[in-house]
Amino acid sequence: EFLGARQSGAAMLRFADLENDGWLIEPARDAAARLIAAHPEVVAQHLARWLGAREQYLKA
Predict the structure, then answer these.
(1) Where are the chain's structural domains?
(2) Helices 18-38 and 40-51: crossing angle, nearest 10°?
(3) Residue 58: its pLDDT value, please?
(4) Cα dist. 39→7, 15, 20, 25, 51 in Å?
(5) Are 9 and 59 in contact (CB under 8 A)?
(6) Alpha carbon 12 to chain centroid distance?
(7) pTM to 2 decimals?
(8) For residue range 9-51, what is the model confidence (pLDDT) as tens digits?
(9) What does the alpha-carbon distance between residue 39 and residue 33 come to, in Å, rounded to a whole number?
(10) Among 56, 48, 47, 49, which residue's Cα sits nearest to residue 7?
């Protein structure tokens, strides 16, 4: 499969089940914002390591 889910890395993405996990979205967003504000360099390093070369496919 050419640039399908396996090649693009889309299978790595996890999405919330809004019916079951809706209550968690706002606290998770707030925690993420605090983490990014407090440690932007660590967040950037983590994302670069996690995404690696896959970033180009996620932007497509």
Answers:
(1) 5-59
(2) 120
(3) 64
(4) 31, 24, 30, 21, 18
(5) no
(6) 9
(7) 0.53
(8) 556 656 778 888 889 989 999 999 999 999 999 988 988 888 7
(9) 10
(10) 56
Where b means 16+ CB within 10 Å and e means fewer, 29-57 reads eeeeeeeeeeeeeeeeeeeeeeeeeeeee
In 3D, which of 60, 49, 46 has the Cα closest to residue 3?
Answer: 60
Residues 36/42, Cβ–Cβ less than 8 Å = no
First to last CA, the chain: 17
Per-residue pLDDT at 1:
45
Phi and psi torsions of 4, nearest 5°: -80, -165
